[in-house]
Amino acid sequence: MGSLSYGQGMNLRQLRYVVATADHGTMTSAAQALYVAQPALSRAVRELERELGVELFARSGRGVVLTPIGEQVVREARIALDAVEAIEALSVSRANGRGADLRIAVTPSLEPELTGRLIPRFARDQPAVRVRVVRCDDRDQVAGALRAGRADLALADLPVPGDMSAHPFEQREVVLISPPALQIREPVPPAALDGMRLVLPARGSARRAEIDAILRRIGAAPVAAVESDERASWLGWVRAGMGSLLWYRNQIEDTEGVTVRSFMPPLTRMIGLVHAHRRLSPAARDFLAFAKETAREDH
Length: 299
Description:
Helices cover 41% and strands 24% of the residues. By secondary structure, the chain is α/β, with parallel strands linked by helices. The chain has three domains: 5-90, Winged helix-like DNA-binding domain superfamily/Winged helix DNA-binding domain (Arc Repressor Mutant, subunit A, Orthogonal Bundle); 95-169 and 270-298, D-Maltodextrin-Binding Protein, domain 2 (3-Layer(aba) Sandwich), CATH 3.40.190; 171-269, D-Maltodextrin-Binding Protein, domain 2.
């Protein structure tokens, strides 16, 4: 959706957050459903209440319920959001896509997904759309590219900052790839990574930042057996018994000579298509619809 305004400061993002809170009963659940940070959602709702001079929600147990005026606001908000969707849908025309440019930002670990899977399939359906990949080192650069208008869409990790819209695309499983001789309980408890010898991306690289973030999340401190960005060599080092590897199940092409083990509880990473709160071009809307349909077909 775009950033059309209603009233002095009211915007579609605030309306979307208020409707989601009403639907889910708590701001935490609403933020999770929208894949935005909960403080950002709460702040937007409070700002709208301040602008309108009314209280939209009242506390009820651990959640919130709409006040009488809140019920009226949500009813009108639904009408407004539906109207915007209908208006923007009018602009989505295959003919309008002729010669269109589409810029999609992505980080190194997700680029194979974008360039090897999504873009080729989209190009078969929309050969006239010129897709340009905007390469970013990390999620902060992705958000910066979207905010500055250097990219129309991004394939990125979720959740995203509150000034972005997120469309969940795929949940990826992180697995342990290890020499078959490694004796370990299956499925693997994440705590088993503590002190384990791992083949890791080079320090300072975007891929290493991703793995380090996963390790921090589970509180594990492995031992770096190899540190290298030579991705083509990673499985070779595992086969040689130098260490195990943390990577994504859907990016493992050759499992000969290694054992792939799941974690319990599972280690997952949600990715999605992301854009700033502004009106999308027809080409961007087409790509978003295509990606959602692709995800449904592949699952």
